[in-house]
Amino acid sequence: MQGRAEEPAVREASGLARRTGCEAHARAHANIALAKYWGKRDAALNLPAVGSLSIALEALYTDTTVRFDDRLAKDHVELDGRPAPAEHARISRFLDCVRERVGLRSHASVSTWNSYPTSAGLASSSSGFAALAFAATRAAGLQLSVAELSALARRGSGSAARSLVGGFALLPPGRREDGGDCYAVCLMEASCWPLVVVVAITDPGSKRTGSTKGMTRTAETSPYYRAWVEASEADLAAMCDAVRTRDFPRLAELAEHSAFKLHALMLSARPPLLYWNAGTLAALEGVRGLQAEGVPVFATLDAGPQVKAVCPEAYAETVAERLGRLAGVRQLLRTGLAGPPTVREAPP
Ligand code: PMV
What we know:
- This protein has 9 helices and 14 strands.
- By secondary structure, the protein is of the alpha+beta class.
- The longest helix is centred in the last third of the chain and has 20 residues, at 225-244.
- It is globular.
- It starts with 22 loop residues before the first strand and ends with a strand.
């Protein structure tokens, strides 16, 4: 599947890139995959083994400010107002990609804030690396195209590539070994189909196994991994069609199939990856109950215990009311769909 956006290519940094002390601020929205990505075809370049399709979430976002500064002896990273030792190495490695591209040697000060619980299977790496890619390149004086930014964000986290385009985002696996054709494109803008996502948070704590580790274990040990990869192209093509035609019942069936197939795959790893808890099952039962009553809603889950219920705007209240009163659902978030990230530069 080929994207419409232009081919990523390294560009000359502008004169601004040579200065230090430039600051940029970006806001990027988290996304939730309806056709899931799980597995890498190249770990070093972070290239996915399967294509994916997601929706961007308006109320779930990351705000990130980056400043490159010659006077810093190392990168400084702050997450939600506190030093972030757990995330520091991964963020610094990502900044190295930006520095290499520009030929910049300065370290950076990164301050990032999430509007929702971090690392709890709510896709914080998607909004996190999308915001970081945008803010860091601008702070370094680079003006990249959306395709270039998406490919860069993918180096931090596969799902982040999709947050760069917003709306209904399609990330093909690409075929090129250098990953030059692996960047997200906007299949349809958010405003074209105003869906609502009700997120049932059943455990706000950090998840037990991160996605990269989980994907490696699954690829190495699951007897079903090959079947997952083989079916992915047809699954994705069907979902693109359901989105383009705004066929909710078809999208619901395909998205639930993708989510449950992903979790069946995770469960078949050795040792198994079990992300659910009692609240997860209660929320899934809640969605089943609503469906039985004729409410157009479907459930999806990432590598975590939270359940995301997706429905047309007119049913959001009914869905939120039902899920909100379930034992085991600790918090509810409700959100419409979002567009691409925004960026703001401050003068040095
Ligand atoms: O991009 P990562 O490393 O956050 O992995 C994302 C994996 C899933 O959230 C489970 C699926 C997806 O496509 O977002």
